[in-house]
Design goal:
12 helices; 2 domains; 37% helix
């Protein structure tokens, strides 16, 4: 018998895209689905569109509902409302501007049933600009798990992945994530103190708690890059403005776990990068890129010291903290 799977659509001012996201869930080959749309106090007609769509398609789902909020809490709080409302054994989160491929849930479930030790599973993504027309296709994320330096290499343990993650976020296929619900609840879900970055703190919490992250070589979803996205990677800037909001998170999550040399390198980079708060300097031009490299590579003495020290630690597990 099919397990109940919850798909949580995380929405905020998503009227331009949400019907496409909902249709992709409707078209899943897996039949037993609980659909939850969690809306973060949108001021457009996202909720109205969802209500109308659900009235027409309600019979396809085992359960279907909308969760709303009277105030905007950020993506982490919005995702948690979906998590705490879910009843499925497994959860698939979907950004309201993205779409699942028809076999997404079935492929994930087939993999975790064959590998019952897996509690968090990633897969490959198709990336598009603005819409999912062939002309706007950018790339399909690669399976790099065969690379010994990959965070998904079979030799990695949860502890090894944790050490890599406190240095930097190595997960570039977040929208593909498929979660065992009880596992996600066991680490407290998403950290609502980090309003606009739900994923990176979660990877750190999961691996620190001993849950290894796994990857399968299957394309499961379409990811949309567009100007209105919270994590807009289409903007032509040197430093993503969201980076300037992460120091408090790093002070709690990553700096305490980092060696002095790496922590100092990252803090110096943070200080030097403040110049790029000025919009003119942050424009993606050849000159500005040169300035950025000069500041963060050549003017940061800890970069060289930590690199050399990492070479000396090349045969140690501690080496993962220096790359």
């Amino acid at each position: 018998m099919d397990s109940l799977i919850t798909v949580v659509v995380v929405a905020y001012n998503s009227s331009s895209f949400i019907i496409e996201a909902l249709d992709s869930i409707y078209n899943q080959t897996w039949r037993k689905i609980e659909l939850i749309v969690t809306d973060d106090c949108s001021d457009d007609n996202t909720v109205e569109l969802c209500h109308n769509w659900m009235e027409i398609h309600r019979s396809r789902f085992a359960c279907i509902r909308i969760v709303t909020s009277e105030k905007n809490t950020g993506v982490s709080g919005n995702a948690n409302r979906g998590l705490y409302s879910a009843n499925g054994e497994w959860i698939k989160f979907l950004g309201a501007d993205d779409a699942l491929l028809p076999g997404c849930i079935e492929a994930n479930m087939e993999h975790v049933r064959k590998n019952q030790h897996i509690k968090i599973l990633f897969s490959r993504l198709n990336i598009y600009n603005d819409n999912f027309l062939p002309v706007n296709f950018v790339l399909t994320t690669e399976d790099d798990s065969f690379n010994p330096s990959s965070i998904m290499h079979p030799s990695r343990t949860a502890d090894s992945q944790y050490r890599m993650l406190v240095v930097s976020d190595r997960i570039h296929y977040t929208p593909s994530a498929f979660f065992h619900r009880e596992t996600l609840l066991s680490v407290g879900g998403f950290d609502e103190r980090v309003r606009l970055m739900e994923d990176y703190p979660l990877w750190i919490k999961l691996t620190k708690a001993g849950y290894r992250l796994y990857f399968m070589d299957v394309v499961t979803a379409n990811y949309r890059r567009h100007a209105g996205a919270a994590n807009n990677k289409k903007q032509r800037v040197i430093v993503n403005p969201n980076y300037f909001k992460t120091e408090k998170f790093r002070t709690e999550y990553t700096y305490p776990a980092l060696p002095f040399l790496v922590r100092s390198e990252q803090r110096i980079n943070w200080i030097l990068s403040q110049a790029f708060r000025w919009p003119y300097l942050n424009r993606d031009t050849s000159f500005n890129r040169l300035i950025y490299r000069l500041l963060t590579r050549f003017m940061n003495p800890f970069r060289y010291i930590s690199f050399l020290y990492g070479k000396l630690k090349s045969d140690s597990s501690e080496n993962e903290l220096y790359h």
